[in-house]
Amino acid sequence: MKEIVIKADKLTKKFGDFIATNQISFEVTQGEIFGFLGANGAGKTTAMRMLCGLSMPSSGSATIAGFDVYKQTEHIKQNIGYMSQKFSLYEDLTVKENIRFYAGIYGLSKPVIREKMNALLDKLQLRAEENSLVKSLPLGWKQKLAFSVAILHEPKIVFLDEPTGGVDPVTRREFWNLIYEAAEKGITVFVTTHYMDEAEYCNRISIMVDGKIEALDTPHNLKTNFNAASMDDVFLQLARGAKRTAD
Amino acid sequence: MMYSCNWHGALNERQTDMKQFIVFVRKEFRHIFRDRKSLLIIIMMPIVQIILFGFALTNEIKNSNIAVLDNAKDEASQALIQRLDASRYFKVTQYLPTQADIERAFKSGTIRLAIVFPQGFRESLMHTNHTQVQLIADASDPNTATTVTNYASSILSDYQQEVNGNSSLPYTIKPQMRMLYNPQLKGAYNFVPGVMAMILILICAMMTSVAIVREREINTMEVLLVSPLKPLLFILSKAIPYIFLSLVNVSTILLVSVTLLEVPIQGSLLLLMGVSLLFIITSVSLGLMISNLTKTQQEAQMFSLMALMLPTLLLGGFMFPIESMPVPLQVISNIVPSKWYYHIVKDVMIKGLGFSAVWKESLVLVGMSLFLLGISFKKFKTRLA
Predict the structure, then answer these.
(1) Which CATH architecture has domain B64-164?
(2) Start-end of H helices in chain B
(3) Interface of A with B in 145-174 (CB under 8 A)
(4) Chain A residue closest to B22 (CA)?
(5) Cross-chain Cβ contact B27/A106 below 8 Å
(6) Mean pLDDT of the region B241-248
(7) CATH number for the domain including A91?
(8) Rounded CA gap, B121 and A201, in Å?
(9) Residue A198 falls within a domain, yes or no?
């Protein structure tokens, strides 16, 4: 039995009368790639923010790496990584400076930073660009770099908020190779996405509609249960009932 | 298990904090030094302002054109006209033939002042001991009008005293004037402290707020909020580079004013730097406040200009005297930090007073800083919602 690293129980967030996430419950185990799907405005981002300690839940409970989202946000922060689709590296700093900065923020020591930086630059084949400003890199490279930086401190869980938005299919495939690699090392990956082909790459998927989790299973089981040929079909069957349309 | 929760192991919390702090401050300096244009503006702005205020914008009024309507045309009137023309304040450009020409001259906008000598000017002056000269000024700009009539009157009274010579009037009061602290009546003594207040408020408050709001705008804020970085460290790291740059600015302003404008530092330099640092901290606190109230860099900039620049200029006391404002404005001026700093700098730098003279004003600044820091720190969103 693998360790449960994310556990949400009836987690709810209200903004006034509006219930952004409505009593969602699920568990994610260590090393799992957990896909978090839903149309715009379904409540994905709100749920993710609560799990990261960025937003206080209205009710319900959740633990991340065994720590409570209400009281132990400082411990949670030490154990998670985060990357968002809206870009999160500093464009006016070089590749190396960005790596050093984020590693430093997580308190990594200098020799560790140097070692990890070298390994990372080799892996992403960024050696030639190590002293270039990040703004001069193509978007796909930036995204891969941002992901690698987000897991540089070897967190237990990494949260990815639509990480591959606007990236071409080939780079997306490469990006997912990085995700698999991280998962194999034991890092749990919690990822929101719009792309249904990406959903197929996940170990398990939850689909949110109007703030509730309507389905949660492996891609294969979901397709069987909904009698669908592809994840697209599953998603459309569920999303058709949605009342909310946009963010 | 390949990960441990506390992987930095040996480092205790304080060491980690210190390291994060250094890493962050280094990054902030990189942002600043990489943006050469802004850096140049920050460094050059005080020098340009000092030079502008020092040489271009002076409140002395020199070389005003005046017109003369001389109905007397005698020795006395001629002597006076020559005197006026010889002074550095006036240039006699027109001799008007009739009374009606005066208004025409003003309407054409070529003169600031007209002087009318009555018929038999010298006769009256010598024999009846009583005569009148009419000064007509363009009061559409009241300050200038008052100043030029004052200049003219003083030239007239100088002449009068000379004519009287020893056979002076039986009763005369002759005022003896001494201009303390600024014997040459230099405008620089007034605006150097003013420019210091303005530059510091601008650099510290605006730049700090923009630097914080920028992280929000480019979405790196979220990543930082998810990281173990403490909010206090974040705020400090943002402020430190601008505090440093502001101290550089204070030094340049002082250097330029001592060497170029010949405004000496009468009091203790240490005290002056100390109170400047205090004011810098107040300004940074204001910047933090603004960063909490605004969402984009432009908003932060506009807000800083409107909420800091204008009050500093209008109610800081160095452009317009606060004593002559309506009471409500006088009351409001008390919440403008620059007013207090301006007071302190004038006392220390120009009058050479010590800490005992400025502790009250300093205390006000300390109070303001604590109040603002308290609010911003409470409002600083470690959670986004």
Answers:
(1) 3-Layer(aba) Sandwich (3.40)
(2) 13-34, 36-51, 75-86, 100-107, 121-123, 142-164, 188-200, 207-217, 220-226, 231-259, 269-293, 297-304, 310-315, 327-333, 337-345, 355-379
(3) 150, 153-156, 159
(4) A104
(5) no
(6) 92
(7) 3.40.50.300
(8) 107
(9) no
Q: pLDDT tens for residues B330-351?
A: 999 999 999 999 999 999 999 9
Closest alpha carbon within chain A to B382: A54
pLDDT at B79 over 70: yes
pLDDT tens-digit series, residues B90-149: 999 989 998 888 988 888 888 999 999 999 888 888 887 778 899 999 888 888 888 889
The structural domains of chain B, with segments of one domain joined by +, span: 28-56+187-379, 64-164
ipTM tops the 0.95 cut? no
**Any CB–CB contact under 8 A between A95 and chain B?**
no
Of the partner residues B3, B35, B384, the one whose CB lies closest to the CB of residue A156: B3
CB A24 within 8 A of CB A209: no
Residue B2 near chain A (CB below 8 Å)? yes
Chain A touched by B6 (CB under 8 Å)? yes
Structural domain boundaries enclosing A158: 77-189
Q: Are A209 and A40 in contact (CB under 8 A)?
A: no
Residue A228 has pLDDT above 90, yes or no: no
Q: What percent of chain B has pLDDT over 90?
A: 36
CA distances from A171 to A132, A142, A221, B203 (A): 20, 11, 28, 43
pLDDT tens-digit readout, A97-120: 999 999 999 989 999 999 999 999
Q: Is A53–B23 a contact, with Cβ atoms under 8 angstroms apart?
A: no
Contact residues on chain A for B228, CB-CB shorter than 8 A: 74, 77-78, 105-107
**Cβ-based contacts under 8 A for chains A and B:** 101
